[in-house]
Amino acid sequence: MTINGSELLDKTESYEEWLASVARNANPLTVSPEWVLTDTFFAIDSENKIVGIIDLRHTLNEFLINFGNCGYSVRPSERKKGYATGMLKQLLIVAKEAGLKQLHLSVERDNLPSVKTIINNGGIYERSFDYEGIQADIYKITL
Predict the structure, then answer these.
(1) Residue 48: helix, strand or coil by DSSP?
(2) How far is CA 8 from CA 13, 29, 43, 104, 142, in A?
(3) pTM of the model
(4) Phi/psi at 96 (nearest 5 deg)?
(5) 97, containing H or E segment
(6) pLDDT confidence bin for 54, thresholds 50/70/90
(7) Which domains are present in the chain?
(8) pLDDT one-digit tens code per residue, 24-52
(9) Which residues contact 8 (CB under 8 A, 6 or more apart)?
(10) What is the three-class DSSP state of 72?
(11) H or E stretch covering 111
């Protein structure tokens, strides 16, 4: 299972290894040369349960140009409860405070809940692209 917005948590051997990588990539002095400065946040519900994850990529490198400034995932059992929309709304505040003027977000065209989340947060369709045979769209949110 892919966990979007997790800075490869789904592909890392251990949580400790992942957390060390996330900490390095959140610091301009230690960010990986193959990556970009990134802040990663967990979404927590009222019972202190992790319900989602979201990241903010402060810039886009050649690899990220079609993936955008942000990725997010919500635990399958917690979907359709407004968490993704709320997570993205909060991230827009963080991005603006960090000095970003706009965010680009990519979404697979058939992921209608995510398309709705982006549009509900001010996303405007910008362009389409094909990634490994899957149609995807880029939306822009002006901050």
Answers:
(1) coil
(2) 10, 20, 17, 19, 27
(3) 0.89
(4) -65, -45
(5) helix 83-97
(6) very high
(7) 9-142 (3.40.630.30)
(8) 999 999 999 989 999 999 999 999 999 99
(9) 18, 21
(10) strand
(11) none
CB 86 within 8 A of CB 93: no
- Give the pLDDT score at 14: 83
Residue 98's φ and ψ, nearest 5 degrees, are: -80, 0
Structure token pair of residue 129: 């692209």
Identify the burial level of 141 via C-beta atoms within 10 angstroms of its C-beta, where 0-12 means exposed, 13-18 middle and 19 or more buried: buried
Picking from 28, 4, 39, the residue whose alpha carbon sits closest to that of residue 118 is: 4
Residue-wise pLDDT tens digits, 69-112:
999 999 999 999 999 999 999 999 999 999 999 999 999 999 99
136 neighbors 106 (Cβ within 8 angstroms): yes
Tokens representing 87 are 């997570």
Closest by Cα among 107, 46, 109 to 81:
46
